[in-house]
Amino acid sequence: MNLRVKLPFVLSAFLILIALFAAGTVLIFDRMSNTVSELLPVSERNKLYNEFDRKIAEFSEAVKNWGLTGNPRFQGVYRSRLAELNKSFENLRKTLNDREKVEEIGQELQLVLGQADNIMKSGQPIGDPRVAQNLQDIETETIDMVTKIDQMQQRSVDTVLNVVTKGAQLRKEMIYYHTALIVCSSLIAIFLILRIRRMITDPFNELLKATEKIGQGELSYRIHASRRDEFGTVSERFDSMIEDLESSTHQIGRRLAETELLLEVTKIAGTTLDLKYALEMISETIANKLDYDGCGVYMFRPEQNSFCFEAGGKTDGDIACLPAAEGMAEEVMSTLSHVVADDSAAQGEPDPVFRRGYRSGVAVPIIRDHRVSGLLLIRKKSPHVFTDGEISMLKILAHTVGSVIRNAELHLSTKKQLQKLTVLYDMSRAVTSLLDLEDLLKKMAEEISRVLSSRVCIIRLLENNKLKVKSLFGLPAGEENELELRVGEGLAGQVAENGSPLLVEDATSLPPEMKVQIPDAKSVICVPLKVGDEVIGTLGLYDKLDLDGNAVPFTADDMNTVEGFASISAIAIDKSKAYEHEVRMEQEARDAKKRLDVLFDSVQGGLITLNRDFTIVSVNKYIEDWVGMRPEMLVGHSSLDIFHEKIGICPHCAAKSTFETGEINSIMQSRGVNYAELTAYPIKDEQGIISECVVFVQDITERVLYQEETLSLYREVIQTKEYTESIISHSADAIVTTDLGGIITSWNQGAEKTFGFTEAEAMGKFMPFVPDFLLDRERENIEKIKKGELVKDIETLRKKKDGTIIEVSLTLSPVKDAAGEIIGISGIARDISEKKSVEKELIRRNQELSRLFFISSAMRGTLELDKLLRMVLVAVTMSDGMGFNRAILFLVDEAKNVLKGAMGVGPGSPEEAWKIWSELSLQKKTLDDIMQDVLSGPLKSDSFLDRLTAGIEIPLNEDTILARAVREKTSYNVANVREEALVDTILIQQLGTQAYAAVPLISRDKVIGIIWVDNYFNGKQITNEDMKFLASFSNHVAAAIENARLFEQVKMTEQQLENIFESMSDMVYFNSKEYEIRSVNRAVCNKLGLPPSEIIGRKCYEVFHGMDRPYEKCPHHKTVSTKKAEIGEFDDPLMGGTVLSSSSPIFDLTGEFIGSVHVVRDISELKSLREKLVMAEKMAALGEVAAKVAHEIRNPLVSVGGFAKRLEKKLDGNLREYAGIIVKEVERLEDILKEILGFVKEVRLTKERVDLNALVDDVVRLMGSGLDDKRISVVKDFRLHAGVFVDPNRVKEAFVNILSNAVQSISGSGEIYVYTYAKDRNAVVEVRDTGGGIREEERPFIFNPFYTTKPSGTGLGLAITHRIIQEHNGTIEVESEVGKGSVFRVFIPIKEE
Amino acid sequence: MKILIVDDDQNILRLYKEELEEEGYLIVTASSGQEAMEQFEREAPDLVTLDILLPDVDGIKLLRQMKEKRPRLPVIMSTAYDYRDDFAVWASEAYIVKSADLTELKATIKKLAEKE
Question: Which residue, A411, A763, A933, A966, has most beta carbons within 10 Å?
Fold first, then answer.
């Protein structure tokens, strides 16, 4: 019965049990309640009995009390007791079911009641005997009644007792009953529990245990429950599940093992390339993993027709070979499938497989290309059934082994192939890289031996029909000669003779004529080395060695390799041989050529070979350099074209005569600045006919020029010497020259005058005028001069002949000879000891001026060359000229070894290009015209290109076109900068040029610069014609530059001399004896305010004194008659003051008097300066006083004026007028005070750049009211375009004064003209008026302070104006005519910062 | 607006006081440097006019002392002699040469007062 049915049963049994239990309990309760209900009426009656007893007793008592006492009160008590008794009896009667007894009692009660009633009815009971009787009766009756009640009560007690007895019995019964019930239900419960346990708990435990076991891996555990309920079913299913699980686990385990095995086998196959080792490992693994006793790999050897043992595990190897025609092997071979066998199958002789205790086995074929290539033999020492799974596994393993074997074979063959390829590669590399034959052969022998693992290799080369051993491998060196063979001799000889290779497996069996020299050689390969069909040698290999070093025979395959190798080698050898030969030949040729070249080029002079047509056959390097052309431009051309046309010499002229006479001929030629000597030497051919001429050209320019230069310089010096000597000797300054040792070489009159020594006393002595304490200083100065420095304007001390020390200003400069070498010192000294500091100041200013002059004139000197160069570039770029777009001049800077951009001519941009070209063509100027205004026209300097050019530097040590042009003295034309490797990249970067040409400027065999041109804007190609033109032009240019430089040098020397002349602050001029001025220095021009051209040629007295005849006081006039030096000091109004004048005679070479050098010093300026100083001192003193006075005066004035004003406000009439007068006068006083103080006060200037026009305009506007009052019209004309640097307030004040002066001078109406303009670097403000003018005698004083012609002036206005203008380094001048008006001109320097 | 006028000339002090009071300013005066500093401390003027030549102390020194104490105080230098070029007076707000015509002084005071 199953559980589902059982469970309701069990549960119902429990329910019944509980119902029985309950029923029993109800029964017991019922019995107990019956017993108790029997007791209830008994107790009720008992209660009634007791009550009735008590009521009778109470009633009788009440009667008794009445009867005994007679007290009426008891009458009432009796009635209530009676009622109660009746009632009680009534209750008793109702309750009691014993009617008889009750009737008896009732009757007795009625008796009692009747007696009692009798008693009660007696009025006086006491003593009444009836009453006593009655009472007795009642007593008796009552007792009787009570007895009867008690009897009745007794009966009910019996009933109770009965009930109690029954209760006790019932209890006993209940105990038994209960005990039985409990026992019974306990038993039933236990039974049920046991039953349930059996039904549920046990099977659960079983299940739990089973799962635990399975969980622990005990798969063999089964529940095996033989139950038919659900648990039975569950456990059965569980068991079968576990069964399945166990079997699949087992299978998986197997598969896993198999896979593991396969993996391991594959791993082994993959990790090692050593076949034997791999197979050993594999078979061992198979045996171990699959638990076989033997596992071996046997490979089929066709030569033995058997399977031979290759590798195996454990005890395999017992069988070396299994014949393929027998037993299992045979079967496998025929079926191509596995064969399973055991020892029992064998009949008679057991299969060798089953010896050594092997009982069962299987042979699995290793199949390759449908053939059995081997066997995998598995054996076991116990009988074993090989399952299908096992067999298929083994098949897979056999397959794996097969592929391992194949891989190994493949690897081996690949390796070999690779080795071969490597060798061939090495060889071909050797062929290309090794040109040294010896190295090549050595390498070859090594390589081929290594590849074929041969013991010995011999390479022989055929030389003179002999096979000489050239390389040996495997044999000690030194045996080469012994191994040498003739062709046809020995094996190698045969090979060389026949030209075909030989393979000998056993050398010992060779016939004696082919004997091999290597004594113990067995196997030999010998192949010929062939180039084309020609045998050049042999390559022999002796004895192939296997891995163990045993000799094995060579194979045909080896021979193929050697042949291939030999063919490459032969080519390599041939090539190497050829190369060696070439190298040798080349070296010889080079040496020969070098010797020749050195010879040819080292000749100091040009060598030109000409044939009879005067065609150039060859030239040497000297010529190349000289003409600046490469040989290919010369050779093959006609000498007439090259030299006669372009270079200007004609070698053929020299050669012509030699061709005719056969004699050596020498001529000299010149062209421009170059001079050459040409000598022609005849060259005779075999027939003795002069076929060619060598012309030797020598540049003798240096020689010639040097002579010329020296001559011209000499002339220059002679000319200037006389002239300057006279200047020097007649200067008022001491001019002394010494040699570098300080020995006096010249001494002028000034020196004599200054120092007191006569020329005779001084000449040849060491500077006698240097005080002892200054000797060291003087030597320092000499050192400076030696270095070429100038000592300018130093102030030092000198000693006079009488020993007095004087102060001098000294300028020392070097004296140079024609070569520029410093040979002496010239010193100019001026006595300044007596002069005051004002004078020193004056001198210094003069010197500053002369320094300025010096610098500017030096600049002008260099400008000349610049102009020349610029003209050159203009010529190159002008369309009338060469028409290049841009030209740049580079000059060689030898110190820095660079080419430096000097200047550039050309437009900066296409727009500019167009503008310039159109402008130039519009003007239709000739080239000559343009050349003239090079510096002012559109091609002027400082153009964009010029500035660009200045920054370019090209190093000459680099290899660029320009550097080459300089080095090689050659022109270059770069047609396209992108195709030229040596292009100057800086030019592309800076100038953007695409194509350019460069021509060297060669002066006297030296490149001084480069002219660079391009056609940047029109892109025109630079043609060869252009180049030719440019090259020839450059020669002109070079010559011109050289000339200019020479000119400049000469000019410099001249300049130096002139500088002395010009820089003297004194006026120096040269007068002829006819009083005609021949030359003047700058000081003269400055003084006269005239250019030299307007002075030179005029009479001196006319110019300087404004006279028509000589001036008597003039020293020159005296010199003309005395022919001696004269000095005089006189006032000269025309010269503007006092002058110190000296005149020194000059004689020509013939000694004739030609004139005098006149030195005039204007000392009037000095005088006026002195006066000004005095004035300034006065003013300063006055200023101090004024400041004090002003304080004292101004304060009272303020009070007076201030209070007067207050009065004016308060007063009326006359008094107010008086106060007004005081106020006005005080105002005037204050104005005067202000003016005076303003004049004496020092004012600090705050200068700024001011538009003078605007300033003057302002001032005019300020005057406005004054002008209107007088009806004065102002005419303005402002033409000044420059600003000035002034204190605007101060300058304004100056002009206010001038203008108010003008206004004041005009009485009535008039005009004032105000002009501004520029003159000589000055801004000029001119004020003209139509006023009364200034009388001539007043004119000198108008600028003096406190000078006035006006009734109410301070006289300070113009003085202040004058001062202000002076403060600004300006001047003021006055022109005036009485009655017509005055003109004031104020000059203020424009350049004053 | 309180103005301290410093001048050694009693007449001038009186003139300035009367004229400026008419303009509506409150005037205190001092005729020496020492008195000027006392007044300066006590009265705390809004503006000062200062003469340079004083019997005891230099006006420029006074200017410096005042400016050290009250850098923003406007000071007018009012002198008989033009010291305008002496950079020491540049510390003052204005510079006036004394004149019987007080127009400039008044205008300057007004300008400075407006600025305050």
Answer: A966
